[in-house]
Design goal:
Length: 183
């Protein structure tokens, strides 16, 4: 696959079951030197007292989301500085969080891709997951509206409803350098 050079950090965001983990893993394997960092894995390092970023209590969820962003950025910077393209699998919830992440990764290049399959597709994908991988989440419509408000014109808003994970990963590797660059 001949593509423009994709370097720096590629943040892949989107709703639960949008395909972030699957697609980032596939895309990383298509690049010559790449690492994938999953926010869920970083969060799961907290063994007691963990609160999901959209969970309660809200103040603690925000505090832990900031900790996760700091840890993701530190890992990403280390890999980038050693010549790897980094794909971060992370739900970025608003522009303030994106600005925070970009600031932590600067001066390295940062790309943003918001995987945006329809709510119905996300629910269907979630329902086919194993029980241990399934998210119990009823805020899809609200979250979709918030993501669309903040990110539909930032980076690459990528509707993947009709694409396979493999086709999505290939398109990301082929087009992200020109479609998703933030700085």
């Amino acid at each position: 696959m001949i593509t423009p050079e994709l370097s720096g950090c590629v943040i892949v965001s989107g709703m639960p079951a949008a395909g972030k983990s699957t697609v980032t893993g596939l895309a990383a394997r298509l690049l010559p030197r790449a690492a994938r960092i999953k926010a869920d894995d970083v969060n799961e390092m907290i063994l007691t007292g963990r609160v999901w970023r959209l969970g309660t209590p809200v103040d603690e969820a925000k505090r832990q989301a900031e900790l996760c962003d700091r840890n993701l950025s530190g890992l990403a910077n280390n890999y980038i500085d050693f010549g790897f393209t980094v794909l971060i699998d992370q739900l970025v919830t608003d522009l303030a969080e994106l600005d925070f992440l970009v600031g932590l990764i600067a001066p390295r290049p940062v790309h943003l891709i918001t995987l945006a399959p329809s709510v119905e597709v996300c629910k269907q994908r979630n329902s086919t997951r194993t029980l241990s991988e399934r998210w119990e989440f009823d805020g899809y419509h609200r979250l979709e509206a918030e993501l669309r408000r903040d990110f539909s014109d930032v980076g690459w808003w990528f509707d993947t409803s009709a694409l396979t994970p493999e086709a999505t990963a290939e398109q990301i590797v082929r087009e992200a350098a020109r479609r998703a660059l933030l700085k």
